[in-house]
Structures are given as C-alpha cells and as structure tokens.
Amino acid sequence: MIKKGIGRQIVLHYFFVVFLALLLVEVIFMIVIRAYYYDTIYKHVESRIQSVSEFAPKFKEPGQSLQSYLLNTFSLGDTELQLLDEKGNVIDNSTNFAAETSVQTSDVTQALAGDTGSWIGKQPGTGQQVMAVSKKLDNIVGDQVYIVRYTTSLEKVNDKLFTITLFSVGIMVAVLVIVFVVSTGLANSIVRPINNIRDVSAQMAQGRFDARIKGDYRFELGELASTLNYMAQEIARTNQIKDDFISSISHELRTPLTSIKGWSETLNSGGYDPEETKIGMQIISKETDRLIGLVEEILDFSKLEQDAMKLVMGTVDLRELLQEIMLNVWAKAEMKQIKLQLDSEEEAYLVHGDGNRLKQVFLNIADNAIKFSHESSIIFLSLQKIGDNIEVSVQDTGIGISAENLARVRERFFQVDHQNGGTGLGLAISQQFVERHQGQMLIKSELGAGTTITVSLPALQAEQPVEPPQLTEG
Q1: What are φ and ψ of residue 240, in 5° steps?
Q2: How far apart are CA 135 and CA 74, in angstroms?
Q3: From CA 341, how far away is CA 463, in angstroms rounded?
Q4: How far is 24 from 26, CA to CA, in rounded Å?
Q5: What are the angstrom distances between the C-alpha of 182 and each of 6, 7, 36, 290?
Q6: Which of 103, 128, 149, 311 might form a disulfide with 134, Cβ 3.0–4.6 angstroms?
Q7: What domains can be seen in the chain, in order of their start residue?
Q8: Residue 66 in contact with residue 140, Cβ under 8 Å?
Q9: How far apart are CA 249 and CA 255, in angstroms?
Q10: 0.70 exceeded by the pTM?
Q11: pLDDT tens-place string over residues 188-221
C-alpha cells in the first residue's frame, strides 16, 4: 500500500485517467464489435430475402405451391423461415415447431409499409434473443399478400461477444497493472528527490547551512535543489559577514569607549594643568563624535532596511555641496598630505533631493578615497552635465579594489580591508540613498591603480519650480 503523499496522488491520477480511457475504449470497442456482428447477420439474411422477393413474382411450378417451394428452397441453417399474411398471421414455417398464431413485432409493421424491417428481441416461449428480418412480397400471382420473415437466434453470437468482452477486459486489467507499476516507479522517482530535498531543507532550517542537496536532479527539481544550495551558501556567507561585522563593530566601539573611559578617569582624579585637561576633553569629544557616527550609520541602515527612512526633499546645488564636503575632510586629507581638487564649471548644478543625505553619500565616498589613498596623492572631484543628468565623480590613485571584491563592495557589512575599521555599511547605505533619488552609482577600480566612483542624478530642469524642502517617504 502506498502511503499518503504526493506519490499516492500521482499513482491514483495516472491510474484513474488510464482507467477512464480504457473503459471508454472498451465500451466503444464492444459497441462496434456488436454492431459489426449483428450487421453481418442482417446483411446475410437481407440478401436472402432480396433473392426471395425477386424470385416469387416469377414462380411457375405446376403441381407445387409457392409456399412449399419457398420454404424448401430459401431456408437458411439455424434460421426459421416464416410466411405471414397481411395481418401477421403465420401461414407456414420451415421448422417443425408450432407456429405463432400472430406476429406483431416492428419488423412486420415495417415490411407492410414497403421496407425491409428488422427487429431484435426475445423469442416468445423460448426466451432466446433473436433477430427477425421481414419483407413483403409484391406482384404475387392471385394477389395474395405474403410477408417473408427470417428469424435467427443470436445466442451463439452473444456468447462470442461475451468471450471477446472477457478477453478485452483481461487486456484492460493487464494494462492497468502495468500502468500501476510504471506510475509507482515514476512517483518514487519524483518523491525520492523531494524527500531528500525536504530532509536537507530541515537541516538548513535547524542552522546547518553546510548541508547540501546531492544528486543530479533534472528539470524543476534540479533547479529547486540548486536554488536551495545557493540559498544555504548565501546564508552561510551572510552569517560570516555578520560575524565579521560584529567583531569589527565591537572593536570600533571598544576603541573610543576605552579612550573616553581612560581620560574620564584621568581627569576625574585631578592634578592636571589646564592644557592637559583641554587635550583630554578634545579626545573625549572626538571619540564621542566617532561613536555617534557609528551609531547613526547603523540606525540609517536599519531604517533603510525597514523602509522607514524619510527624505527631506528640496533643491540642492551639488557644486556647493562638494565644496562643503572638501572643507569637512580637509583636515583628514592634510594628515596624509593628500590634495583635493574640484573640477567643474562656475555654475549651479541643481538637483531635487535631500541635501543632508546626498552630503552623507559624497562624504562617505570622499572619506573612503582618503582612507585608501597613498600619502601625497591627489583626489579628483569632478562635476559635469550629461544630457538630463548631473554626474559627480570621485577619483583616487590609491590601492584599488580587486575584481572579486568589486562585485561585493556594495554588499552590507562587507569590508575590503578589515584593518581600516568601519562597519562595512557606508557604500550599501550610499547606494540606497542614490537609488532613492532615482540615480545610479557606478564603481570602477583596478587593484593597485585606484578607484573611480561616479554618481549620476537627474538634473533639475529649468521649467521645474524651485520647491521648499518637504518630507517624502523613503
């Protein structure tokens, strides 16, 4: 017995469909065979009646009656020949059995109407199924009306049909057995991979992301297995990135907290001159700002993931924004003797967007450029209008990014160099902010040759009114 499940459903559906098809074929076959046998008998008898009807008007045998001559000459084996009058009364027959007094079956009625009539039914007295074929003889001498009626038993034919039926039913049963065996094998070939996929998926659900679905499955099952394996691989990779992020962010948080705690305890103990106290307070303030930046970056990412980030939209001049960013990162660039150079026309580059979020995007890009650039190098910032867009490019000649890391650099928590710190969320957040402004961010890089990041934003058209800042759902 096949247990409940998709295997049983497959077997039952195949079995049911084939059974209905075979049953339909069986019924049609038996109807056709029965019609063939019955029609053969009818045509044989009908041809004999035709001979009788052609012969009777020409009968001229002195000393012998037409009735006797017809009964003796045109009889058929295993068939009773009857001569009836116009009222259906039996005048004579070819057998020794007592004749019926009157025959009122439909074949007689049809014969009286001028057709060759036929009737199939049970013979009174014997109960046998018979076929009767009747025809009226025309142009008989003496104007006597005769109806020639042949009655033949169908028992032998029915026995033959019954044998054929049994044989065809046997074939039907054999086919159903074969279908059952084949469909069971087919169901098992489908269910086994599904059970394997289910078992491995259960292991994945329990956190075993190293489990893999093994087997060369074809078609949709193969695609499903590949998808689940890829999902497990991606989850394992994401978990590893998450673990690396937790490790990195723990270090990033611990370092400023250690400085703040150390200087707080030092200042609290007293005995320091004002200059030393001022240095300590500056360090505490700097590390506090660093902590705030880390927390805000994580909060921004969380809001973007939950689609809860709101943008304060307004008119933004990207040239002024880049100049402001250059002032913000100037001190950090000066520490590595890096020069920042802005290349743009002396005009306004207006876009419709959130100034603070766009500043966050370009500040992150510029900060990364400084972080991964060599000392005494130059970072080029450029602005240009191309069609209906404004492109902002930040190009450095730093360490660059390998092709392998370039494909993943915008993934959340991913860091090219863990030693430089950070959360690995900067570019992921920047990418989403650019997309929220209907823009695009393109990164080109070559390991050891530097990186160029280009942000393309829709330019504010001349016919567009300058709108005051307004909140929009992120």
Answers
A1: -65, -40
A2: 14
A3: 32
A4: 5
A5: 15, 12, 35, 70
A6: 149
A7: 6-160 (3.30.450.20), 219-301 (1.10.287.130), 309-473 (3.30.565.10)
A8: yes
A9: 10
A10: no
A11: 877 888 888 888 888 888 888 888 888 777 788 8
